[in-house]
Amino acid sequence: MIRFIEKLTSTVNRNLKEASYAFRMYGAIVLFAILVLGFSGIGTVYPLVRAKSALLKETEVLRGSLTSNLANLQRADGDLNNSRLLLGYLDRYLPQGTNVQSYMSEFIQSVSDQGFFVKTFSQNTYKSVQGQIEINIVLEGNAYPTNLIENIEILKRVTQVKRADIDYVGQGGYDISLVVTIYTLIT
């Protein structure tokens, strides 16, 4: 048996000295290594590579979306900073609370400057719409009510005159019934 192995190795050594035979032999060994190691290794690695490739594509899409969202947030932050300057004005014209008392004092001042005084000032409780307060007002005075409604609607608080009934009571006097709506900020 040892003799057989020695004979085989001597034959292989002699043949390896020839270049064409050595080239074919080493080529066969490389091809065998590629086939055995390559396909068995690729078979287990390929699904992982495919999953990583899909994850990479998804990451790129998310990165683009995040970049867009960041730009939108920066633009909104600038708009918010600009609008904070205007919030003081908004609270003056459209307050968060009902604050009917301050409106009533401003209203009384406005109509008294035109020669009228307030007989009744009552809030409608039957109709409640969020952000709106409906008020019934009865005025009495001796002045002619030419600019009365316009002056009421230009008060600091947003006011809408829904109905105005004007009755002449004689001797230059008028009774005026108003239904006005004032608005509040809905939170």
Topology at a glance:
Layout: H1 2-16, H2 19-84, H3 87-93, H4 100-112, E1 116-123, E2 132-141, H5 148-153, E3 159-170, E4 173-183
Which terms would index this structure?
single chain; alpha+beta; 2 domains; 5 helices; 57% helix
Question: What does the model show?
Answer:
This protein is α+β, with helices and mostly antiparallel strands and 187 residues long. It folds into two domains: 2-81; 94-183, Ribosomal protein S6/Translation elongation factor EF1B (Alpha-Beta Plaits, 2-Layer Sandwich), CATH 3.30.70.60. It has five helices and four strands. It has helices at 2-16, 19-84, 87-93, 100-112, 148-153; strands at residues 116-123, 132-141, 159-170, 173-183. Strands 1-2-4-3 form a four-stranded antiparallel beta sheet. A hairpin with a 2-residue loop joins strand 3 and strand 4. The radius of gyration is 46 Å and the shape is rod-shaped. It starts with a helix and ends with a strand.
Elements, N to C (H/E): HHHHEEHEE
Please state how the strands of the largest beta sheet are arranged side by side.
1-2-4-3
Q: Tell me the CATH architecture of the largest domain.
A: 2-Layer Sandwich
Mean pLDDT: 82
Overall 3D form: rod-shaped
Number of strands: 4
Distance between the termini: 100 Å
Q: Please give the share of residues in helix.
A: 55-70%
Strand content: 15-25%
- State the name of the first-level CATH class of the largest domain: Alpha Beta
Quote the CATH topology of the largest domain: Alpha-Beta Plaits
- Radius of gyration, taken over Cα atoms and rounded to an integer in Å: 46 Å
The biggest beta sheet reads: 4 strands, antiparallel
Q: What is the helix tally?
A: 5
CATH H level, superfamily name of the largest domain: Ribosomal protein S6/Translation elongation factor EF1B
**What number of structural domains do the residues give?**
2
Oligomeric grouping of the chains: single chain
> Structural class per helix/strand content?
alpha+beta
Please mark out the parts with pLDDT under 50 across 5 or more consecutive residues, or reply none. none
